[in-house]
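User: Please work through this fold.
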Amino acid sequence: MSITTESELIGMKKISEVVGITLKLMREYAKAGISTKELDEYGGSILKSYGAKSAPYETYKFPGYSCISVNKEAAHGIPSEKKILKEGDLINIDVSAELNGFWSDNGGSFIIGKDIHHHQPLVDASKQILQKAIQNIKGGVKIAEIGYLIETEARKSGYKVIKNLAGHGVGRSLHEKPENILNYRVKSNQERFKKNTTVAIETFISTHSTIAVGLNDGWTLVGNKGGYVTQHEHTILITDDAPVILTTANEIWN
């Protein structure tokens, strides 16, 4: 959305803080032995305490308050009582919500307990690439150039990007224009980031796959060639200079 008034900025800051805090507390709550359903219910209770509503449920009737993807799930994992977290699991939590007509989105991948399966380099690459991408965004910058940066940095680290998952505009709804802030460059895309707009920037860094494909449950996505995927996401306000990161409360870079 385009921020034109102080009240709109306050609204975006508030919901962004809520989803950021929820993601941070869910990360701290996640441990071996609990189900992803329990983790999701905990996150849902935090959103409700702020009066916020789950964006995936409100928008798509997603069967959970948040998307929780484990190990070889790339995105949109359904919280389940049968899915028990184990030491060394690679997990991604994506929290988006609505409050007072404003919407915000954030996410992050991390490891449960000790890194016994050596996923940390993939997690770190995703975090660092998101940071570098956001540092290079300001009004007038081509969206395709940020995609090029993300894919180039992924390749330098020995990884690939998922090409059919993307960042997006956010604010008055969960997904707005620009709809495809991709993790690679489409040379024909001449669209530029606009000052005073809010967007969700997210990385999808992968060990083997370049396309996410759906499972039979109608929601969960996995890589087309297997392997693992990490995602990190912030909602930002674009300026003429460094962006304002609205979801800093999630502390995904700490």
